[in-house]
Design goal:
This protein is α+β, with helices and mostly antiparallel strands. The chain has a domain at about 45-150: Immunoglobulin-like (Sandwich). Helix content is about 20%, strand content about 25%. Strand 20 (about 485-495) and strand 21 form a beta hairpin. Helix 4 packs parallel to helix 6. The chain is globular, with a radius of gyration of 23 Å. The protein starts with a helix and ends with a strand.
Length: about 525
């Protein structure tokens, strides 16, 4: 195991944090087990004095014949050892065709190990496509709640309809996760979570709820990140939504460190060795907390999260990671003009490997709709100038910070005639509908795709409709069709002929159990790029 000293010595020898050193140190970073070779050690049979399934159950990454089933043994979520022994524990799982679990179809036993915080990731196969199933776990005489999940339809089929929800940015201190209770009642086929599942800051007085963990500064250690995930996972509305249907998850920045870019921290004074170790801890805790496949097990400070799936021939989804591989934000995080630094062709949010993967997936796609699920706003939206004649500015943390790559992507969709591209976005704590062009600054150029940006579940607090702001934004930006600062989520209904996005708004997340209302709806007709108000 390496300590800060040897890592820092190597950094001085290399002259900085090079990619070669970054990868070379990955396997030796503190607290990360050698997953493939690690032996579980003795298997314990604890008799729990309190419910070990206090974080609930979840499923994710469904396929035609299976999915990942997740739970984590955690009797005391906010304690350092979570109430678990430092030994592996046998966990039985079962999956059935009915909620009473009387028509079982698969079962087995796996190990929950202390190396992975006693999390369980069961990859089920051999199920029938396009079917609903129920599942549960057993350990130490305790039984988990029953969760519901679903396989994807056959790859060659053309389903009549898909109904899914997407969400992001759930700051526990800023409000309640009211939207999830209403989302569960909508009964979507699956959920896409676009990042900021947790927030890494310290606890603050006077908030709706308060973070546990360090009193000052951001989360630092694997223990810190584990406890923070446990605190968020203890929310009953979040648990209920996870148990309702499978999720596809990806991260943004707050799962680790605000506005970081690959190996570059937001605070440029951060020691690179400390940053490397923090990133490894954050990535491991994220894997432990999510229903992800073993292909996503982190290797030190690397975790490949981008992946794709097909809902028959109706829709293909490419789920991206715009944090781990990006270049540093030009001009700082913004807002700044689209100057030479912002337009530099070397700037990237995807990195070369992920960009090539995305292009090849889109070329091979058989989907009627092609969905790019990612983190930061793709619409090149200029801020409203504060004075007449002032230069237009753009967020450098969003796609304008990699404007050349952003325009090349849209040009690729246009030149290759990718059918019906739709971009799903989170991050910005506000709702947007954007018509995307190769260059959004040229208002009379063809629209090539539509972007639906969903607001936060709770981040930013109560929020509001902001109709006056919408008019000003539209006067500066021909791409903008809708904008609001409310909290909530987006429910999408997709058929071969039409895409519909319903913007659901939680009226006041600072109060529990508040109402959620349908605020706006937009549709895209197949073969006709651009959003239409429904």
């Amino acid at each position: 195991m390496l300590t800060h000293g040897p890592i820092q010595s190597a950094l001085r020898h290399e002259g900085g944090l090079t990619r070669r050193l970054f990868l070379a140190q990955a396997a030796a970073i503190a607290a990360l087990p050698a997953f493939a070779a690690a032996r579980p050690g003795p298997v314990g049979r604890p008799a729990f004095d309190t419910d070990p399934f206090r974080l609930g159950v979840a499923s994710g990454d469904p396929s035609e014949d299976g999915m990942v089933l997740w739970t984590r043994l955690c009797p005391r979520p906010l304690e350092p050892d979570h109430g678990m022994p430092q030994e592996a524990v046998a966990v039985r799982w079962e999956i059935a065709e009915n909620e009473s679990m009387s028509r079982g179809v698969r079962r087995g036993t796996t190990l929950a190990t202390p190396q992975l915080a006693h999390s369980v990731h069961v990859e089920v196969t051999g199920l029938r496509p396009g079917r609903t199933y129920w599942y549960r776990f057993h350990a130490g005489g305790a039984t988990s709640p029953v969760g519901r999940t679903r396989t994807l339809p056959p790859r060659e089929s053309l389903p009549a309809k898909l109904r899914f929800a997407f969400a992001s940015c759930q700051h526990l201190e800023h409000g309640h996760f009211t939207a999830y209770r209403h989302m569960a009642a909508q009964d979507p086929d699956f959920v896409v979570h676009l990042g900021d599942y947790i927030y890494e800051g310290p606890g603050k007085e006077g908030q709706v709820r308060r973070h546990t963990g360090p009193e000052k500064g951001r989360l630092q250690t694997l223990r810190d990140y584990r406890i923070r995930h446990s605190q968020y996972r203890s929310d009953p509305d979040l648990q209920a939504m996870h148990a309702r249907c499978p999720w596809w998850v990806t991260w943004d920045d707050h799962e680790f460190d605000n506005n970081y870019a690959n190996t570059v921290p937001d605070n440029k004074d951060t020691d690179p060795a400390t940053f490397l170790i923090r990133r490894a801890a954050a990535y491991q805790a994220y894997y432990e907390a999510m229903p992800l496949r073993s292909s996503c097990i982190p290797a030190g400070p690397d975790l490949r999260l981008y992946r794709g799936m097909a809902f028959g021939r109706l829709a293909e989804f490419q789920i991206l990671d715009t944090r781990q591989y990006r270049t540093d934000q030009p001009n700082g995080d913004g807002p700044k003009p689209l100057n030479a630094a912002a337009l530099d062709p070397a700037n990237s949010l995807l990195g070369r490997e992920q960009r090539n993967w995305l292009d090849s997936r889109l070329i091979a796609s058989q989907g009627r709709w092609n969905v790019i699920a990612q983190q930061v706003m793709m619409g090149m939206v200029a801020r409203v100038p504060k004075a007449d004649g002032a230069e237009r500015t753009y967020s450098m943390d969003q796609w304008p910070g990699a404007a050349h790559e952003r325009m090349a992507l849209a040009r690729f969709w246009q030149d290759r005639r990718v059918p019906n591209p739709v971009v799903l976005t989170g991050d910005i704590h506000s709702n947007w509908v954007n018509d995307l062009r190769v260059d959004d600054r040229i208002g009379d150029s063809p629209v090539v795709a539509t972007e639906f940006v969903g607001t936060s579940i709770s981040s930013g607090g109560k929020g509001g409709l902001a109709e006056a702001e919408l008019g000003k934004l539209q006067a500066e930006n021909p791409c903008v069709r809708f904008f609001s600062r409310e909290r909530g989520y987006v429910l999408c209904t997709v058929t071969p002929e039409q895409w519909r996005s319903d913007y659901l708004a939680a009226e006041d997340v600072t109060q529990p159990n508040g109402p959620v209302v349908l605020r706006r709806s937009f549709v895209v007709e197949s073969g006709k790029a651009g959003a239409i108000k429904a």
